[in-house]
DNA sequence: CAAAATCCTACCATTATAGCAGGATTTTGT
DNA sequence: ACAAAATCCTGCTATAATGGTAGGATTTTG
């Protein structure tokens, strides 16, 4: 049930650029240094974000990467799905519509479907801006009181 | 973000026994045949469920496995945690209390914490009985209308 | 005492994760 | 023009996790 480092770093990159860009292109090396990640690994992750149109790149001197839109217009679910492929907890609900041949009689499918909806609903409702400004109420919701240590 | 086959099969086993026991011990081979799983792999998964006190076993003739309590007294989160180790989406919140050294300044931690709570809240609220009787309202909740195909 | 059944220890193949290396290409500033 | 700065592209590799298999020991019942 773990989100891979790829997904976590992808989100970290998006947040880093949102915080450090000011409309300028942010070079990879700067992000890697700030976030303490290797240039090379980061490169491969950023490539995915560009292909998914989350970032815009510029080659050459003064080049780098910047967001393709406003932080509030990114939802976290879509960012993570790019690198993770899917966020569905089981294979049978990866392809929407196409299910396994035992779906009609499968007792556990409703559980996995429900779990998928809950995850999608949560991550789809959080924006990059929420993370950047630290909107704890939205991220932690009703649980905010219980986690005063955070 | 996938639940492994171990976790899925563990839940499948619990449901199978709940449905086919009637207080008797259910032999492994019967479960394997019904669920179309290999005896040997199932064996290793059931061993985990026994160690976690989810099942009671009896050796010898007429032996097998049965539930250690009523279906309504199992919550799905605990069953899955046994085989999955944790359901937390990132390492930094695996050990409750102990977090990574950058926790205080980590922008994304509240997101991962929130996601963890949402998952735990959902799976912790569903019981084995809900799955056995097919309580779609509880499992699919507000989304139940939208998934008439299921 | 044999058959039925779980229990235990160890092994193995495949895939996914996490990351590295090297060089090609593009763009800017001087 | 051209060097420096930067992304882009192709391919590789080590480690760990997943998903499973094998063989036999032990226990219990009829």
What does it look like?
The structure is a homodimer of 150-residue chains. With 150 residues, chain A is mostly helical. Chain A folds into two domains: 5-67, Arc Repressor Mutant, subunit A, CATH 1.10.10.10; 87-143, no CATH class. Helix content of chain A is 49%, strand content 5%. In chain A, strands 1-2 form a two-stranded antiparallel ribbon. In chain A, strand 1 (55-58) and strand 2 (64-67) form a beta hairpin. The longest helix of chain A is centred in the last third of the chain and has 17 residues, at 109-125. The radius of gyration of chain A is 18 Å and the shape is globular. The relative contact order of chain A is 0.14. Chain A binds chain B through residues 1-3, 8, 11-12, 15, 19, 76, 84, 86-91, 97, 103, 107-115, 117-119, 122-123, 126, 131-132, 134, 136, 139-141, 143, 147, 149-150, and chain B through 1-3, 8, 11-12, 15, 19, 76, 84, 86-91, 97, 103, 107-115, 117-119, 122-123, 126, 131-132, 134, 136, 139-141, 143, 147, 149-150. Chain A binds a DNA duplex (30 and 30 nucleotides) through residues 4-6, 25, 27-29, 38, 40-41, 43-44, 46-47, 50, 57-65.
């Amino acid at each position: 049930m773990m989100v891979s480092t790829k997904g976590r770093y992808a989100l970290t990159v998006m947040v880093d650029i949102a915080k450090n860009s000011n409309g300028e292109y942010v070079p990879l090396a700067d992000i890697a240094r700030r976030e303490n990640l290797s240039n090379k690994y980061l490169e491969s992750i950023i490539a995915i974000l560009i292909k998914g149109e989350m970032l815009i790149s510029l080659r050459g001197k003064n080049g780098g990467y910047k967001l393709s839109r406003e932080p509030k217009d990114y939802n976290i679910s879509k960012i993570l799905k790019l690198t993770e492929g899917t966020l569905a907890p089981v294979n049978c609900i990866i392809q929407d519509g196409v299910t396994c041949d035992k779906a009609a009689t499968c007792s556990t499918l409703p559980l996995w479907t429900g779990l998928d909806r809950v995850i999608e609903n949560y991550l789809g409702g959080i924006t990059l801006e929420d993370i950047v400004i630290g909107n704890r109420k939205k991220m932690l919701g009703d649980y905010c009181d219980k986690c005063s240590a955070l």
